[in-house]
Amino acid sequence: MSRFFRLRVLAFGGAGLAALLVAACFDLPGFGGGSHPYGDRAVRASLARRTANVISSVNFDQRAYDTLGEMSILFAAVLGCVVLLRQNRDEHRDRPEPTEVALPVRRYALLVLPVALVTGLYVIAHGQLSPGGGFQGGVVAATALHLLYLGADYGALERVRPIGVFEVTDSLAACSYLVLGLAGVLAGTAFLANTLLPYGTFNTLSSGGTVPLLNAAIGMEVASAVVVLLARFLDQAVEIEEEKGS
Amino acid sequence: MADAVIVVALLLTAGAATAAVAVRDPARQALVLSLLGLFLGVVFTVLQAPDVGLSQLAVGSALTPLLIMLSVRKVRRRGKEGGK
Predict the structure, then answer these.
(1) DSSP for A176-217?
(2) Domain count, chain B
(3) I need a surface site. Which of A10, A89, A123, B41 has the fewest CB within 10 A?
(4) How far is B32 from chain A (nearest CA, A)?
(5) What is the ipTM score, two decimals?
(6) Is A223:A121 a contact under the CB 8 Å cutoff?
(7) Which domain holds residue B70?
(8) pTM exceeds 0.80 for this model
């Protein structure tokens, strides 16, 4: 295929996509209109199961199966990164020297770290009540931990973050999501059906049946997945060196 | 009033996105990208999707720039060693 021909194929495909998108845009309902057929049904279903945050109800109850897929994607992606960024045969590890950190940076990082960590855990714990949930809180908590790398040094981060524990937690959390789903099957309903636990009192931490449990599983999975992912990147950036002369 | 806020947030997002393309140094690009993540989070929040806004804030303005910075550091270090 010549360059010219490839460009024509690209132009043809692009023009077709553009035409379809424009045609689709003319059929969209008006911006900010009052008619939300899906939204109304989702809110009704969520309130029937006493879940205050409708988004969490959609994620972990009405569409819990989709969330299982998303979790598996993250798990597989992190697994791929771990395999790709492993230490090769022609590489060796160099302990990085402890470095001086500017005092304002150190002070700021160590001040913000506990606040950010607690915020992350709060967002996970209140996923069924207020905006947020396992994914958002998990990422916040995991990145908060890395403020230690900014505030102190790599060695301090490695001491509070035993990577093996986080890898095992990652897999355990992914399994617990599956097991919670299978519990529905064993109880005689359906996979991931939210009929197992009492729905509780509206707008309390334990409301929503299995929603808080699935939410916590996702929180654990995402937090440890992000920690493992960042650890592999940090390994490559700080510790692993190519052999001299290779 | 709400429309004005949406327009401002969209303009800021467009500006930050253009800047992210225009800046050529990857380390600076990561910083601009985190700014873009912040503005996108604001857009989602004023469009009444705080859940998505939180995800965007956590991933777009913290995680992605951090991964880019670490990759840049690795590449620069390797370049330095190769040059010796």
Answers:
(1) HHHHHHHHHHHTTS-TT-S-SS---STTSTT-STTHHHHHHH
(2) 1
(3) A89
(4) 19
(5) 0.88
(6) no
(7) 2-83
(8) yes
